[in-house]
């Protein structure tokens, strides 16, 4: 049995503000260490439950945050960018399930460090359904027939996951106080919880169905300003709303929609906010 793990950073235990998740800031190295330890708890529990292979994808920012020298030695790590499928790079139909660690709520929602890909995205939709990173990534997993078994993050992230994926196991490692404050477990207690929840998720995997995406999805991204939308609209095949910063793309499948979203958000970061 193979397990795929996507590890973001904003939803990790004790990480509550940009100083922990921005490589230029003073708490970042602490964040890296806690992030790596958190991944190890799930990895070790997965191997203990009979997984034969665990692949971990570093899914935050430049995607080179996890300390490979500190990871479980049997782990395979996908690290660095550019990755065509970003946070779900390497995921395919050979996996029995996926786990999303360190995840957060989508843009504009309650939750610690909530956002969707970049801070210039207000909303993102697939066929009119509002999705964030969690939902979009779960749809890519569903394209391959892979169920998301475990989601770890704050309490608001758990609610978002449970609304999207019936039967998913969630691990709440911190409770939102505000967007940049939380009531957090200690890493030791969080580790105990993550090991327990990993065992529960793998034992109950038969009750979770993949989140199947629409066959020909329409991606719509609403940006914070029109300049960002203009940059995103440089992608062939997109259309732009003349009265609002919304860029739309008709994709042949969810993988093409996902790649278009990555390209849109990368281009949008070229626009100034002022």
Detailed description of the structure:
Pfam families: Peptidase_M55. This is D-aminopeptidase. InterPro entries: DppA_N, Peptidase_M55, Peptidase_M55_sf. Its EC number is 3.4.11.-. The chain is α/β, with parallel strands linked by helices. The protein has 7 helices and 12 strands. Strands 3-2-1-4-7-8-9 form a 7-stranded mixed sheet, sandwiched between helices. A hairpin with a 2-residue loop joins strand 5 and strand 6. It starts with a strand and ends in a 6-residue tail after the last helix.
How do you describe this structure in short?
Keywords: Aminopeptidase, Hydrolase, Protease. With 274 residues, the protein is an alpha/beta fold. It has 7 helices and 12 strands.
Mean pLDDT: 97
Determine the number of helices (DSSP H or I, runs of at least 4 residues).
Answer: 7
Percentage of residues in helical conformation: 25-40%
Q: How large is the share of residues in beta strands?
A: 15-25%
What does the largest sheet look like?
7 strands, mixed
> What is the CA-atom radius of gyration, in angstroms?
18 Å
Q: Which consecutive residue ranges, at least 5 long each, have pLDDT under 50? A: none
Spell the H/E element sequence: EHHEEEEEHEHEEHEHEEH
Protein name: D-aminopeptidase
GO molecular function, one term: aminopeptidase activity
Keywords: Aminopeptidase, Hydrolase, Protease
InterPro entries: DppA_N, Peptidase_M55, Peptidase_M55_sf
């Amino acid at each position: 049995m193979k397990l795929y793990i996507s590890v973001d950073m904003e939803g990790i235990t004790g990480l509550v503000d940009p100083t922990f998740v921005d490589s230029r800031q003073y708490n970042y190295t602490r964040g890296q260490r806690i992030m790596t330890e958190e991944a190890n708890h799930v990895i070790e529990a997965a191997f203990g439950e009979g997984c034969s292979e665990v692949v971990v994808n570093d899914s935050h920012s430049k995607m080179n945050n996890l300390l490979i020298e500190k990871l479980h030695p049997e782990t395979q790590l996908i690290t660095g960018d550019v990755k065509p499928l970003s946070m779900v790079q390497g995921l395919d139909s050979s996996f029995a399930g996926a786990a999303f660690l360190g995840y957060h709520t989508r843009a504009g929602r309650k939750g610690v460090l909530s956002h969707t890909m970049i801070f210039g995205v207000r909303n993102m939709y697939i066929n009119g359904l509002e999705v964030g990173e969690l939902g979009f990534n779960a749809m890519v997993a569903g394209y391959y027939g892979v169920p998301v078994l475990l989601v770890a993050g704050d309490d608001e992230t758990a609610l978002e996951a449970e609304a999207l994926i019936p039967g998913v196991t969630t691990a709440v490692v911190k409770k939102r106080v505000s967007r940049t404050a939380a009531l957090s477990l200690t890493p030791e207690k969080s580790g105990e919880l993550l090991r327990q929840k990993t065992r529960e998720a793998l034992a109950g995997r038969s009750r979770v169905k993949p989140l199947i995406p629409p066959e020909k999805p329409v991606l719509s991204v609403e940006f914070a300003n029109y300049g960002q939308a203009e940059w995103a609209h440089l992608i062939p095949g997109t259309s732009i709303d003349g009265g609002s910063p919304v860029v739309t793309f008709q994709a042949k499948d969810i993988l093409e929609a996902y790649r278009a979203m990555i390209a849109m958000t990368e281009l949008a970061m070229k626009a100034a906010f002022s």
